[in-house]
Amino acid sequence: MSAARMITTAVSAMIGALSLGSAAAAQDAAPPSLDVTLKPHTTDQAVDYIDVQLKVQAPAARPGEAFLKLPMVFASVETARYGANDIKVTDQAGPVALVQKDDPVDPSNFMYFRRWEVSRPTVGDVTVSYRAPARAYRPKLGSGPPFDLRPEAGGLNGAGVSFLALPDKSTPYSIHLKWDLAAMPSGSHGAWSLGEGEVRTVGPVDLLAHSYYMAGPISSYPSPGGGPFGIYWLGEPPFDAQAVAVWTQKAHTAIAGFFGEPDKPYRVFFRKNPYPGAGGAGLVNSFMSGFSDTPAPTADSMRGHLAHEIVHNWTGSLSGPNGIVSWYGEGMAEYYDPVLTWRAGLITTDEFLADVNQRAQSYYGNAMNTAPASEIAAKFWSDTRVRKLPYDRGSFYLSTVDAEIRAKSGGQRKLDDLTFAMLDRQKRGLSYDTDAWLELVTAELGPKAKVEFDDMMAGRLMVPPSNAFGPCFKRETASYRNFELGFDSASLTSNPRRVQGLVAGSAAEKAGVRDGDEITTAVVLDAIQGDAKAELTIDLKRDGKPLAITYLPRGKTVEGYRWARVANVPDAACAI
Ligand SMILES: [Zn+2]
Known about the structure:
- The protein has three domains: 290 residues, Immunoglobulin-like; 156 residues, Neutral Protease Domain 2 (Neutral Protease, domain 2), CATH 1.10.390; 68 residues, PDZ domain (Pdz3 Domain, Roll).
- 29% of the residues lie in helices and 28% in strands.
- It contains 15 helices and 27 strands.
- The strands form six sheets. The chain has a seven-stranded mixed β-sheet. Strands 3, 4, 7, 8 and 12 form a five-stranded antiparallel β-sheet that branches. A five-stranded antiparallel β-sheet has the order 10-11-17-14-15, with no helix packed on it.
- The longest helix has 25 residues.
- The two termini are 25 Å apart.
- Zinc ion binds next to α2, α6 and α7.
């Protein structure tokens, strides 16, 4: 679970309504057409740019109104940032000059736009063309998924939001996307979040922006594609991409079937980062999953996070403030990822148990595990222990609720019934928020459900009942050594990065870390936190000299819980 991946929640929530919007829009009479042609170009076997052409049906653009827009930055990634002269606009009366206007800078580097107005009213249909550079990696301005348009293994890939200047309107278009691969090696093809090759759809331009593009000598699964599910990659990933794809399609079938939409389209794009670090992003009907060669991901780690992401497509995120509602979106994805793949036989009973105990280790060995939900948003990026809380706590809360509903109803009802009731509310346009959850869970369990929920939000430790994970497992006490960095974790994200708040007696201090040491390379802690044996190596500079210090970032021993297999219950009787 990488830090960069976590931002997918915010981004997905933002674009979550798009596909619904397009379905509704399809009922309207013929929205104006927007034809998009993408023509990638190769020099010395590497893609160096894409020529983009938009044909907009009779936009009737006027001076003083924004005609086109492109973010300057999106989730810490700098976009193509065209100048006004880089974009050629013509209509029936000839060329149209553009006037460029930038929105105020967003200091958090999440998103702000550059917009272009026409210098005279347009006449009839309008053609817009510009050249999008496919550049090698651009350093990010902060934490965020790597969306930029990049060459990779003779092809290219990137999210539309990083290179597509599009009409500045939120109304729907009849979108027609085409690839012109004449300047690419033979055998090349193009894939988009919404389909392979030429695609027609109806929706706002955000469908084009918040979606992923890949072209070139693409490998795909299934091959040939053409169905609602596909996984795409370029080159030879350092993990068994084919095996991950086969498993992920089965997981998608199981999860989509559970939620009653077996044919819902979904596509996954693997992207290799030319630097250490993973990071992914939820996009329209799709997910971009980044990886690096060092450290290379395992097939297991790739498939696990994809099942989590697929669940997000349905359970989404409650409306409400980030941090306060994260327990639901992340808790649901963490709860259903192992449960549904286990029910479908895609992970073994032993693997399911290992997943439960990894969470128990991460949660009960977390010194911040009683922090209230109100503190999560502020510390989300600076403290990995706080960032993991909604995942671990949310999932254990949902397991607790599930066990309580099963017990109270004599096995007739379970969490699934609430999950479906929530989704049904959403489909009917009713609120999808904390109050909706409380109404439904109280109807199942009575007033104590509200008390339990408030306790969870206030930070009380969630301890699922012994049989919460089914008849095959029982709860035991266990001791864990708290994850302890040994100094203030904000030191890792401050600028410049310097050790501050060194804890006397900590493993970091004993290993030789000192206040004021400069931290010279990025430190990613999420995986280390969930692995009690993982040592941390930290690259420092002191008095101008580099030094690397390795230690086991663990502090005091605390009591918690784990689950163990009950003897003599066969696997076939295990599933919940
Ligand atoms: Zn998630």
